[in-house]
From TrEMBL, chain A:
Any matching Pfam family: ThiS
The protein, known as: Sulfur carrier protein
InterPro entries (alphabetical): Beta-grasp_dom_sf, Mopterin_synth/thiamin_S_b, Thi_S, ThiS/MoaD-like
Top-level lineage group: Bacteria
From TrEMBL, chain B:
Assigned keywords, A-Z: 4Fe-4S, Iron, Iron-sulfur, Metal-binding, Oxidoreductase
Family to which this protein belongs: Belongs to the AOR/FOR family.
Cofactors, names only: tungstopterin; [4Fe-4S] cluster
Lineage: Bacteria, Bacillati, Bacillota, Clostridia, Peptostreptococcales
Protein name according to UniProt: Aldehyde:ferredoxin oxidoreductase
TrEMBL record, chain C:
SUPFAM superfamilies, per the entry: 4Fe-4S ferredoxins
Sequence ranges assigned to domain 4Fe-4S ferredoxin-type in this UniProt record: 1-31, 39-69, 70-95, 97-126
Domain of life: Bacteria
CDD domains: DMSOR_beta_like
Entry-linked InterPro entries: 4Fe4S_Fe-S-bd (IPR017896), 4Fe4S_Fe_S_CS (IPR017900), Fe-S_Ferredoxin (IPR050572)
Keywords of this entry: 4Fe-4S, Iron, Iron-sulfur, Metal-binding
PANTHER family: ADENYLYLSULFATE REDUCTASE, BETA SUBUNIT, FERREDOXIN III
Name this polypeptide is given: Fe-S-cluster-containing dehydrogenase component
Amino acid sequence: MIKVNSKDFEWEEGLTVQVLLDKKKYTFPKIFVTINGKHIDKEDFDTTLINDGDDVKVVHLLAGG
Amino acid sequence: MDVNNLKQSHKLLVEYKYEPAKLERGYTNKTLYINVGENRIESKDVPDSMKEKFIGGKGYGLKYLWDATSPETKWNDPENEIVIAGGPLCGITQYPGAGKSLVVTISPMTNIPIDSNVGGYFGPYLKFSGWDALEIQGKSQKDVIIYIDGNNGVIKVEEAPLEAIDGHVISEQLTEMYADSEEDKKNISVISAGTAADHANIGLLNFSFYDMRRKVARLKQAGRGGIGRVFRDKKIKAIVIKFKGTKGDLNKPANQSLINKAGIKLHKQIHDYDDVQCRMRQIGTANIIEVMDEYDLLPTHNYQYGGHPDTHKISSNVFVEKYITQGMPDGCWYGCSLSCAKAADHFELKTGPYKGHKVTIDGPEYENAAGLGSNCGIFDPEMILEGNFYCDTYGVDTISFGTICAFAMECYERGIIDKEVTGGLDLRFGNAEAQMELLHQMSRGEGFGALIGLGVRQLKEIFVKEHGADADFLNDIGMEQKGLEVSEYLPKESLAQQGGYGLTNKGPQHDEAWLIFMDMVNNQIPTFEDKAEALHYFPMFRTWFGLMGLCKLPWNDTTPPDNHLTDEPAKMPEHVQHYVNIYNGVTGMNIDKNQLILQSERVYNFQRIFNIRRGKGLRQHDAMPYRSMGPVTIEEYESRQERYDNQLRELLDYDPEGKTTEEKIKVMREYRVSQYEQLTDAVYKRRGWTPNGVPTAEHLRKIGMDLPELIDVIEKHI
Amino acid sequence: MKILVKKDDLCIGCGVCEEVCSTAYFKENNIEKSCIQVEKGEAKKINVCNQCGACIDICPVMVINRSTNGVVRISKKECVGCFMCVGFCPESAMRQHDDYIEPFKCIACGLCAKECPTGAIAVEDIEIETKEKL
């Protein structure tokens, strides 16, 4: 189990940031991601593995319509 | 176009000559008063006390409206005013989004003040012509045009019998009439409404700017709350302003360098990143159509659902690829490099009085596509463009129209109304032809379309009284509050956004706060106190744009590359500092980001008390229809059953197993309504209000807004 | 079309071009008022307009135009001072100085080239196709 934005999410072997975004359908272009407080660059979403127990934040930057 | 004929039919009613006041540090300190009933034109001096407390823009509008009206004044009484004002930053050209006008009046929809923020060149030209605000009062007997010549200091009110009423026609006619040459057309801005505004309470105002490349007068809208209806009720066809000689320093700023630095930095940022961020320069606000669908936030079938399998047919790329040209300087004021305006060129209309005409259509904005489109189950991009065009030229608020139409369609599908009521229109979701027919009827003041123009609140009463509808059900599904229709976001899964819509001054418009991602997706504001803080900060911060004459899009539709490393990314700290800098640069003051909020807080509380003075503005008026908070019907619940069942388990420790959907809806509803009440308590407390939503005298003292006329009003409620 | 061509490897960063330019146009020896500017440091980088014309399409009042000899010029009288052209210049070669409310740029006049001691800059008349290849 991992945390995504402070909520439980099922972990699986080989879970990358990009796979997580796809699973959550997080398609908004202006997001940033941290794993245990560390920023992950957009270019590394495909290759960065998430470990079981990680605290992931996917912050959508839109505070206005 | 031959406009001589039109011009020769004008009859001068009153002329006023003046020496245009010099602009100094963003202000002229003079405002213009025109009474079209008495043909009286006056200049007013702005006292320092007014400037200090009300700042400009909608602050000035609300102040003048308060002074001009009594608590009993109705929207169509002669003393109701339309006040148009920029603000101290309006008219600077270096920082994107600095040409906005704020328009204020007593709304025919809500019977309280409405404020609307609109682009186009009018606001800057009004200031350059010597006026910090324009107040219009009285009611004319015959159709008139007001003309302001800002270079020569001449104002005229003239009877104008022959000009068109529809926005796109009259804007072209008057641009042609008052410009000396093609070159000169950029120096003209026209305010107009449209034929539907003669009948429909959802009437809007069009503000023009001349597009030198497309060679056409483009229109931006002061859309919400029926200001166009008031304009036409005063028998005003148009207000025309002419000012030649725009330069980058006409505001006579105290420190031009501060403004230049902030502006150029933002221009560079937009140049470097917009293509991979919001694509405002490619498609403008429509970039979020498909985003909202993917996050289950795109209102569909009268806000029953948050997405639809056909959304791809109206996704932003469809408009980009097939209909829209953009990317040239499409800003609605000089210097707006975010350039969200866009146009469908040579679009051939299929219906109505302009059928066969090839027109330039501004839009679609996101709200148009969602309101005219998905919310009514319409996924035809050409019909959305057609609806967008007719709404603009007839002077109809697309947001209200979309939401009303969606409501009527749901009532029709549920058998609450039938063809006898709709005059034979088959008002199913998805019937774009029927929707267009409603619009054409509205422009003629006929048939069911004329009723649509009254708004959801009045339609509910009519359906209950005349067609035996269940009042409770209609109150649940009719997406209005305070008489204003909800704008086009589905807030069911975001409690904070329910507050963002409900706990507002003018009604459920998202310009005070849009917290859905922060709340629902990011989970950044989990507690009531967190949400209350956001519902204090963001409405106050965003009110400030309306005091200044600024657009809010350059605040958060472009992002500095290192924004995510800042303390509070959602606030866009670098942009907030830009705003502090350009304000200080123009006015020579030395405020910080906290004083910026204080400026807003004063006007925000003033507006709240204005509502209370008019018998509204209390807790009961901040309640929201349940459709905005949760599933009203079995279909809604069952369409997202897994989500709702899980929530019952996790949040309420309630086992949904073996329960009927009706039972689950009831339990869910009790929970969600109580959440909203608790949120209301927390927000009022944070804002310094009583549990009934009344600002306390102590709070007014604290923010320096304990004016005797305000204390008088609140004392009756404390 | 006329264009100021540059050879960074010949530049010695002596500052003559900047002095000539700012003095000619603003009567002042001030690098910040020069249309041509050299990034000082180990590797000299000459920054100057290449007359690509991206700014022509950016200008909201259409006062940036290409003259008959191909040079991109600003008509300052009608300029509204928004500085969008400064932010959007692909070469970062559109200039702005707080003493003026209009931007300014190289018009390939060649005054600087005449004084350049190493031949690092020169005005050439090139075909538009050649220019596109550059």
